[in-house]
Amino acid sequence: MIAIRPDDLEGAAVRDLLALHLAGMHATSPPGSVSALDASGLRHPDVSVWTAWIGDAIAGLGALKLLGGGAAEVKSMRTHPAHLRKGVAAALLRHIVGEARARGIRRLSLETGSGPAFDPALALYRAHGFEDGEPFANYRRSAFNQFLHLPL
Question: Which residues pair with 147 in a beta bridge?
Fold first, then answer.
């Protein structure tokens, strides 16, 4: 069973998973193309963070960043390598979508990369109704990044 709970980013397990996430983003993205938030960015008042747990083990991380005007962004989605293909990312995404709806968000967006490292995430988002679209917030289109949106 996957338990999802709010997280303050203080625990060693979540800090380690966030470090793994950031290292992975930098390893699979061209220089200057990483928009992943570090711990200080995730602690911003407009960002809510949740972690997924299977028993006492951290299984995943995800966040919701409020953008204003009825819009929000999915941030920092990462499944721990020990828990891949167990439904962790889908559970986190469903939770984030539910939270966005409960907060009155009308459009949920995300920015991600291209290439084999990003294909599983893109498949997940598209399976949950996200569709390709235009840049949002302060993002700019490049040959590497992609933008997906889900009307709520």
Answer: 111
Instruction: Answer whether 33's CB lies under 8 Å from 144's CB.
Output: yes
Q: Return the structure tokens found at 54.
A: 């299977």
Question: What pLDDT is attached to residue 45?
Answer: 97
Residue 31 confidence (pLDDT): 87
Residue 33 has pLDDT above 90, yes or no: no
- Token code pair at residue 65: 């960043």
SS3 96: helix
- Helix, coil or strand: residue 58: strand
Total number of domains constituting the chain:
1
Query: Cα–Cα distance between 65 and 100 in angstroms, integer?
Result: 10
Output the six-digit token pair for 27.
């390893």
Q: For position 57, which CATH number holds?
A: 3.40.630.30
Print the domain residue range for 91.
2-151
Question: pLDDT of 80-127, one tens digit each?
Answer: 999 999 999 999 999 999 999 999 999 999 999 999 999 999 999 999
| Nearest alpha-carbon partner for 74 in 19, 27, 121, 119 | 121
pLDDT tens per residue, range 36-72: 999 999 999 999 999 999 999 999 999 999 999 999 9
Neighbour-count burial of 2, counting CB atoms closer than 10 A to its CB (0-12 exposed, 13-18 middle, 19+ buried): middle
